[in-house]
Amino acid sequence: MNRPPPIATNNHDQAQQSTFKVMLLGDSGVGKTCLLVRFKDDTFLCGSFIATVGIDFRNKTIVINDKQVKLQIYDTAGQERFRSVTHSYYRDANALLLLYDVTSITSFNNVRAWLSDIHEYAHSDVIVMLIANKVDKTTERVVTREMGEKLASEYNVTYTETSAKTGLNVEFCFKAIGQALLQQIDSTITNGETPSQTLNTLVQLNDQSQRQPLCCSYS
Ligand SMILES: Nc1nc2c(ncn2[C@@H]2O[C@H](COP(=O)(O)OP(=O)(O)O)[C@@H](O)[C@H]2O)c(=O)[nH]1
Ligand SMILES: [Mg+2]
């Protein structure tokens, strides 16, 4: 299947805007809704309230390379409980964020099943990011970075770690996805890499910047 087109693009130089659909996937309870709320409103909602309310989608416009990129971010709103996400959900996606919870080995083990559904129903050039969420819960963590990276490289998808609670990497993820999507439709910004390679590069740079030792202080 070919990639679904971005929804609207107007070609005025100053106000060029592209709209992309980004879908959230993963087991119930991994933090999809919280990730969306963190990105949209920069707040963290905890407890049962959010699980029952469910959210359909939220729009957020970001600016990348002086271009306005509107992301329509869809939440599964409960369909994921029995992995009964409708096929059109996959089909309409320009990008998929597949989450698991680093404190739940079950949610990690189910990633393979989610990836096989993606492979079956999504467009072949959909951009996929595997997201290890809840990394703030360090003492309860059971799924290591190495496990996540190994699985991601096996399926050739980009891996990154987030916390919807602290906000770690949340904005980064959506911006990196936006940049890769923009590159997919605008060949003038390719720099010789495929959109997926660009996404990997952005993640590597982001990881490196977070691993930099704190700079020495002068006395
Ligand atoms: N500590 C922590 N808790 C989180 C994080 N993300 C979500 N949660 C909690 O995990 C539970 C499920 O989150 P929710 O967004 O409803 O998951 P969903 O079913 O995938 O949409 C809620 O109690 C959230 O407060 C996170 O990054 N860190
Ligand atoms: Mg939810």
Automatic annotation (TrEMBL):
- GO MF term list: GTP binding; GTPase activity
Write down a Pfam family by its short name.
Answer: Ras
The record ties this protein, via Gene3D superfamilies, to: P-loop containing nucleotide triphosphate hydrolases (3.40.50.300)
Which sequence ranges are marked TM in the entry? Answer: none
| UniProt KW keywords | GTP-binding, Lipoprotein, Nucleotide-binding, Prenylation
Lineage top rank: taxon: Eukaryota
Family membership, please give it.
Belongs to the small GTPase superfamily. Rab family.
Q: What is the protein name given in its UniProt record?
A: Uncharacterized protein
Species annotation: Adineta steineri
What high-level taxonomic lineage is stated for the organism?
Answer: Eukaryota, Metazoa, Spiralia, Gnathifera, Rotifera
